[in-house]
Amino acid sequence: MTTAGADGPATAETAGSASPDGDAEPGGAVAPPGYARRLNVVSALVTLVTGAVAAVLSWNLGVGTLAAPGAGLWPLVVGVAMVVVSALLVLRSRPRGDEEPFTKDAVTVAIAVASLLGYAVLFELVGFEVPTLALLVLWMKGLGRESWRVTAAVSVVATAVLYLLFITGLGVSLPHLIAL
Amino acid sequence: MDFLSPVMSGFGVVFQPENLLYCLLGVTLGMLVGVLPGLGPAATIAVLLPITYNIEPTAAIIMLAGIFYGAQYGGTITSVLLRLPGEASSVVTAIDGHELAKQGRAGTALGIAAIGSFIGGTVAIVALTFVAPLVAGFAIDFGPSEYTALALLGILLITTLGSGSRLKSVLMATVGLLLATVGQDPLEGAARLTFGVDPLLDGIDFVIVAMGLFGVAEILHNMESLRRPQPPAVKVDSVYPSRRDLGESKGAIARGSVLGFLLGILPGGGATMSSMVAYAVEKRAAKEPGKFGKGAVQGVAGPETANNAGATSSFIPLLTLGIPANATMAVMFGALLIQGITPGPTLVDEKPDLFWGVVNSMYVGNLLLLAMSMPLIGLFVRVLRVRAAILAPLTILITMIGVYTVRLSVFDMFLMVGLGVLGYLMKKAGFEPGPLVLAFVLGELLESSFRRSMRIFGGDLTGFLTQPITASLLALILLIVLAPWALRATRGKAPV
Known about the structure:
The complex is a heterodimer.
Chain A: H1 2-18, H2 33-61, H3 73-91, H4 105-126, H5 129-143, H6 148-169
Chain B: H1 4-14, H2 17-35, H3 41-52, H4 57-82, H5 93-102, H6 106-139, H7 144-161, H8 166-181, E1 183-184, E2 191-192, H9 206-223, H10 243-265, H11 271-285, H12 298-313, H13 315-321, H14 327-338, H15 347-350, H16 352-373, H17 377-383, H18 388-407, H19 410-428, H20 433-456, H21 463-466, H22 468-493
Antiparallel strand pairs in B: 1-2
Helix pairs in contact in B: 1-16, 2-4, 2-16, 3-4, 3-9, 3-14, 3-18, 4-5, 4-6, 4-12, 4-14, 4-16, 5-6, 5-12, 6-10, 6-12, 6-13, 6-16, 7-8, 7-20, 7-22, 8-20, 9-18, 9-19, 9-20, 10-11, 10-12, 11-12, 14-20, 18-19
């Protein structure tokens, strides 16, 4: 185990360099160095602040003593560790090669997230059928540019299958309009 | 050979029709997941977790395990045919596998990979049968201090041996540990970091974390390339390798089986590392290393054998110590907890039917996968043509509805989408979700065993060093942390 621990990263590195280039990774555009560095600094600052807030809140919960640890001791330890590691990352923010730039494709993702939030809001209000159909149509036609024929067919069949799977098959009480 | 009788009765469990059906379902799903772009095995298992609530424990774990090792077979297909590794563990296969495909020998590559996978998987199950009870027997007397060290070691190894930057992985592990503390304190009941949100009092459910960070995040990340053109249709020649090909890969398959099994057992190891190391070993062992990268059969046989052996043996730390070795095993850990089963050293004695039922189901699963990868390969090659724009909404809906069914709670949907967005941003900024999820899973164990140890030692931190096994584990941790620096220092000074 010892040798593998010591050699592990080195071996993975050599094998990694022999692996196919970035083009094999779907959606794997690599961010330019300056951009990647900023991305790393921003991420590290976010975790640094989060860790600091968590540490303060934990302190207020009461840390107890080492012999009888209180509720706050462990989260305090974790929060402090988070701050230290974040600070290290701010200092060593060089690009690692796995940072990706936000391009106009990110708009698709934002729309997708908004539609999921909408889905959750409507789910209990109007039952699962309508939001499910709407989400399928939006994602396939609106975001995926499928033909209307494919969109209509898949949406209807998929909604029916989900109904059968969850409500009829698994007997889960989902809010729904159509009673079978 | 007394211990073999529960092993044998495990076969009785496997051959119950229901369990056979779930095994078939699992490996078929695994093959599909491996072939289809987008979701990996960890994400798929995460997405299906809510559905397993309604299935009997043994059947559920048999199915989920099938998805995991089935994906190792399926991942090969896209690696060889399109040079798009479906799974991280098939990345190195793409190098020589795709070269072979370009030479019109895609069938040979796939056939050799299937045979190697079958042998590697089967060898690993046999070895697991003998090794797992030994490890469990050794760990049975572990107390809180040993578990503190073991959980720390598990988190540390996944951050060191995983892909990506170490510093970033460690940071993600601390985030996972912090998320695990949200909710009521396990020992005293004080509300921690809940910000007054009542549904958070019970803590964040592991299912939601796994579904959000693996499932939703991966789907969102794939949305960016939703409109990429569909891959061209590919033809596959005969998958039955010639005698010469078999002769050339014999050694690679043998070495891959042993190597994969050994590396899979290590916490932080598993299929991906096994395949990479196996490729490097084959390249070094080859009589004509120049052929590597230009279509060497051994370059496919070695890694594909090793990733299956590693996938199988990575069940050992989970089932015998309760420490998941990698991200997918962390999700399996969650699946077991859902079923009310805490994996650990007592599992093999207390639930022999489940333990041996799951282990032995892998023989059947591997046999089914061999059939799917050789005579039925044409079916799965056609699946490559399914478009992401159709797949994405279907998977997200199963995920959304699935998470709702856990507690019939819309709050959980929002929480999962939130974690999904976090996972997407992490991916963009180059942070792996694996260490976070693994640390989240081990967080509670780590905290409660740490606090119990501190009580036992009366607040004296040096108490950890008085326990021989704990002290050895801690020494190992120190060694792993310091080794890279030491290596770098000596390398820097040594004249080149």
